[in-house]
Amino acid sequence: MGHTSVTSPRRISPRGSPPHLRRTPPKFRKVLVLKEKRSAEPENPVMDELLLSSKLKRVDSATGCVSPRVPAGDALPSAVSVPRPAQKAPKTPYVILPACDAFEKFRKISRVSVDIGGTLIKVVYSSVMDDELPEESLNGHARKYAYEDGKRVLVNFKKFTDLDRLIAFLKEIWTDRKSGDVIHCTGGGSYKYSEIIMKELGVRLQRTDEMRSLIFGVNFLLSTNVDESFTYHHDAIGINKFQYRPIAADLIYPFLLVNIGTGISILKVDSPTSYERVGGSSMGGGTFMGLGSLLTPAQNFDELLEMANRGDHRNVDKLVCDIYGGAYDELGLKADLIAGSMAKCNRFGEAPMKQTHKPEDIAKSLLLMVSNNIGQMAYLYGTRYNLKRIYFGGYFIRQDPITMRTLSFAINYWSKGEIEALYLKHEGYLGAMGSFLDEDGKLDD
Ligand SMILES: Nc1ncnc2c1ncn2[C@@H]1O[C@H](COP(=O)(O)OP(=O)(O)O)[C@@H](O)[C@H]1O
Ligand SMILES: CC(C)(COP(=O)(O)O)[C@@H](O)C(=O)NCCC(=O)O
Question: Which domain of life is it from (predicted)?
């Protein structure tokens, strides 16, 4: 990646470097340390950091983003993500639904939806909260969130890595289920595990196609959840790195959705009901985890990601300067551009086991390799379909600074600022959210 109009003589310069080459500024290191601590707690994933933050900077833009968002026409009113309140509220992330007809049904019967993907199981379920939230947590949202009896409807988000735990959890929270009830389901596991789910929970299964779920989910979140989407600016300081990008309901479409799960699906979305899966790639989150577990001692995704954040990829990647001795000015390739990912790891011709590379450097190189590739592919699809906004979803992103920085850099660099890279607070839950909302899924009995 990387072509700029460099006219100066061949030199090695950090100016205008691709994002992975700048060192993490000291202030940001503090944030990373916080994240490392959080990621050690299974119930408190990194995503909480943004979900629970009320301090993201909100921006208006000439491209039609408004602040605060005003629902248009028959659009649903906004849901609200709140900081974790003090009393009786769930410990896991949730949003509160506005008290309106569209959501009234969730007050009376529980709804549960699961997205069983190639790696993770995501659950979205409704619950009713009795207690009063502190008023200040809803400040700025002039909507009614409580019903007459003071109750509020929550939509909760939780992920699992194995089916047995999911089933045990659902048995625990879904105590009012009856034999006629349905569990909403999507993802490959909605086929593979349908019988076991129905047998264990004693309910029917209503399946929604995975792509349809993604679109329903992203549409709902963008059009009803204030401050769902944001941009990432690595060179800004602290919380300013994240900027809300609320968008008016009538300006949401068209856009490109790049969902990075185990593999990648790329969808061109023209409306909630008109979309096409225009591309895909097998080099996604599963590749990062799979190669990471082969090449490093990391024991899980969080460890691998944390390693990557500490690594220096220049020890394992061959840069343009390693090959040219400096920049390749004729092509506008900067000296510090990655010429070949992991190309310094080649051991052919060396004594066995002689060469050693640090696992964190390998992890960093791997993360950059996967993210750069996705960024460039997303740009190409965005350009091909003349789309100005690319939303990235999927649990791979994890709101990780290296990942978002690399994706944003690629989109911005290649499109010369014409296309915007956007992220979603509920990045990993698009499918589960969409299947939660779908009333017309196919029933399995
Ligand atoms: N705690 C985690 N455990 C496993 N994978 C994780 C975790 N956090 C992030 N990931 C990344 O998310 C990817 C799965 O994303 P997801 O959107 O859930 O896809 P899928 O539906 O295929 O399971 C994994 O391949 C991995 O790269
Ligand atoms: C098969 C899948 C839709 C499954 O979704 P996932 O569990 O990865 O979220 C996805 O992995 C994918 O689109 N893979 C890429 C396939 C391709 O090369 O187009």
Answer: Eukaryota
